[in-house]
Backbone:
């Protein structure tokens, strides 16, 4: 919309504020936020000598990234990728199987209150901790290796997938569900014929997205001993073996790109 022409009885149009109508309150709040940001940045203790040294290490790392070494430690690299891929596939499948009943139970429009409360609590606990924190706990419980990583990714998948599935079920077209109820259908038939067709394309898309996330997270949790390519990457960085680290990062990028294109194709076919 363009501004109105100036003249008697006419004023220039201005877009109304989205959140705070009062101009004085807007200035006060935005000004306070700016002051807080400046004060917070002032408390950051920057060691410029260390920054200078870090730039030199960064240059060596970038050089190794540009000239990656895929052969010297090829055995360790492919073993790490095999572990990461195994953890990712198994954790995604198990996480989906567990997320579906939890997500259905966490949907307020189809679940009784006791079931709803329990399932929402499970989702909240799963989402309360970052994957690396969960990995530290499982490594302490079950030792180093991919089993701890598998449990970590499965647990994290439940919080992610069940929450979004429950929200999708709560946002379904109630007319279709009411039509199924009007036929005298049971609760299971309602879920199977009234809800499942509406949320299935979204569930498939979210599952593929979670597969992508789980592979990337497998590279992170390996740093704390949960197996996967992250352990190999961490070892390379500790040894300043930047050309091998660069090779690992390139392979991770290629795999994520392949998974992204593949998931986009599958989502289009499903929808």
Residues:
């Amino acid at each position: 919309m363009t501004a109105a022409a100036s003249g008697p009885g006419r004023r220039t149009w201005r877009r109304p504020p989205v959140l705070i109508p009062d101009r004085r309150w807007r200035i006060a709040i935005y000004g306070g936020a700016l002051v807080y940001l400046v004060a917070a940045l002032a408390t950051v203790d920057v060691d410029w000598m260390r920054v200078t040294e870090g730039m030199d290490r960064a240059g060596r790392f970038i050089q190794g990234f540009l000239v990656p070494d895929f052969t010297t430690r090829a055995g360790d690299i492919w073993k790490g990728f095999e572990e990461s891929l195994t953890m990712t596939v198994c954790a995604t499948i198990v996480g989906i199987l567990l997320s579906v009943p939890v997500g259905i139970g966490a949907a307020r429009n189809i679940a009784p209150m006791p079931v709803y409360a329990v399932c929402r609590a499970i989702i909240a606990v799963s989402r309360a901790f970052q994957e690396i924190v969960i990995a530290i706990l499982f490594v302490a419980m079950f030792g180093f290796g991919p089993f701890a990583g598998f449990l970590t990714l499965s647990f994290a998948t439940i919080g992610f997938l069940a929450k979004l599935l429950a929200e999708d079920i709560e946002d379904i077209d109630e007319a279709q569900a009411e039509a199924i109820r009007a036929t005298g259908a049971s609760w299971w038939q309602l879920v199977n014929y009234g809800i499942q067709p509406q949320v299935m394309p979204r569930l498939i898309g979210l599952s593929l997205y979670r597969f992508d996330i789980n592979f990337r997270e497998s590279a992170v949790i390996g740093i704390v001993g949960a197996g996967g390519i992250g352990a190999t990457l961490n070892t390379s960085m500790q040894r300043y073996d930047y050309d091998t680290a660069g090779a690992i990062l390139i392979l991770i990028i290629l795999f994520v790109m392949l998974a992204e294109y593949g998931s986009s194709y599958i989502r289009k076919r499903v929808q």
